[in-house]
Amino acid sequence: MIHTALPAVSDSVSLAVLVMALLVASFVRGFSGFGFSALVISATALFISPLVTIPMVMVWELFASLGQARKAIVNIDKKRVITLLAGAAIAMPVSITFLHSLNIDVVRAIIAGFVLVMCLLLLAGWALKTKVGTTSTFVAGMVSGFANGAAVGGLPIGLLMSAENIKPEIFRANMIAYLFALDFIGLSIWLIKGLLPWEVVQTAIVLLPFLMLGVWLGGRHFFATSPASFKRFVIILLMGLSVLSLGKSLF
Fold this sequence. Notes:
By secondary structure, the chain is mostly helical. The protein has one domain (12-250). It has helices at 12-32, 36-44, 50-72, 78-100, 104-124, 134-147, 154-164, 168-192, 198-206, 208-219, 227-250. It is globular, with a radius of gyration of 17 Å. It starts with 11 loop residues before the first helix and ends with a helix. The model has no long low-confidence stretch (mean pLDDT 86).
């Protein structure tokens, strides 16, 4: 087994899988704005501990959101984003502590099961007749905050906003602002709790060019398909990866 120069990734096979997952996931983010964190964690779970990839993904999400923020800022629903963050900030410390107390196979199974359920709901086209109120938004933020202990907090909020059928530009702007703040809070909690090794941050920074390349390529929309069709493909891909990860964890 060949070791790598990156301390958070022990061998060349794991590094190759991580780089490929990062490129594909960042392309998806640039093309459709959906599923980046879940793709990276699901694709690498068979090779790298999620407790290593989760903080890496949070670092990459911060940089990706910064690159998209300038064009999105005018469409942000600030009150809603703040309400979501208030709920998330309460739940996330509990989630991070909880995940670190578990066996790694249990962590993999929880993440894979959650991603699978979210994907099934998205694929089913679950819809709401009206926009949810402040209390329900706060509760959704708590669910997202708990999920973001595993860096997949964007999925329940993406599900909620998709179900409300809000305007695409507002959906995108809210998600960019929310995920940036959510992952900033998440990384801060990891740091305060002493759970964020420098080696993980170093590896994430070294691999940033792959993130930027993937987002740039995805933003050029090379595929002759709509973002909605591509999103459906990503959901099915995530479901497959989740089933594989569940199989490894349980059997």
